[in-house]
Predict the structure.
Amino acid sequence: MPTVKIVNFNGEVTGELTLSDAVFDVPLHVPAMHQVVVAHLANCRQGTHSTKTRGDVSGGGKKPWKQKHTGRARQGSTRSPIWVHGGVAHGPKPRDYHQKVNKKVRRLALLSALSMKVRDEMFTVVDGFNLEKPSTKAVKSFMTAVNAEKALVLFHADGSNVVRSARNIPGSRVMNVASINVYDLLNSKTLIVTPEVVARLEEVYAK
């Protein structure tokens, strides 16, 4: 079982925490992580882009000039794609980019991402965020003490002070453990959690 150090809010080591093999020490499955990230980014797309074809552009009802004896190429409409102010040929239209990913693949990708953070020693467990009020300075000092760069902070219970304290730090992201996803795990460099978050992850995924 992997073991990680527990630090306090000052960055000092206060103990150790043994992690579950079923959650934090699984074989890395890169294809699963890739599939989930691609699907996540695709599902974020609104798909509301739209262009006007020659049939949607106003005007162009009259033939610009007669068919023959002008010395110019024959034209039937001023709204042809080759004309200025004409329609767009083969332009994007509203569509759904949603990609379905099986539940087992999502679970495998998430456990692989968590295990990778532990193996790369980019996994920090803090015994608690002792914040009586929001303080970006305090959280930034903590991240500096534990060498956390581009951190993803997970909380379990009420984390309003943590959210309001860390959201202004460039590159940092704060979210509830219920919203954890593979994209944010891989997009961050350091993962900061509390023992409660670890317990919650093991309760949900160690099956």
Remarks:
- The first helix runs from residue 21 to 24.
